Amino acid sequence: MDLHQVIDWGFDFYLRYPIFCYVVAGVLLVLILWKPAKVLKTAFLLLILLALLYAAFFLINSMNIGVQVKEQGIQKMEKALK
Fold it and tell me: What pTM does this model have?
């Protein structure tokens, strides 16, 4: 998973719906000022979840690369046997 794609998606979303982004940012700001401990704890848990998802996507991508290398080796072996 490439972080550049996620950043581009977020920027495109902001360009399409700037008012929605301002409203969400305003609501988050009000919540942080109203109940900072609860909101920051939730944000921290979301960051941990995102880190775990990123690690999972990285592991899945590495497994797919391993499968592709294995298939290429099988194809080379079949060509060598012919």
Answer: 0.56
Report helix, strand and coil shares of the chain as percent, to nearest 5: 95, 0, 5
Tell me, yes or no, whether 43 and 16 share the same domain.
no
The domain in which residue 13 lies consists of 1-34
CB atoms within 10 A of CB 31: 15
What is the end-to-end Cα distance of the chain in Å, rounded? 38
Q: Does residue 9 sit in the same domain as residue 46?
A: no
pLDDT in tens, 19-61: 999 999 999 889 889 988 988 898 899 999 988 988 888 888 7
* HEC sequence for 15-35: HHCHHHHHHHHHHHHHHHHHC
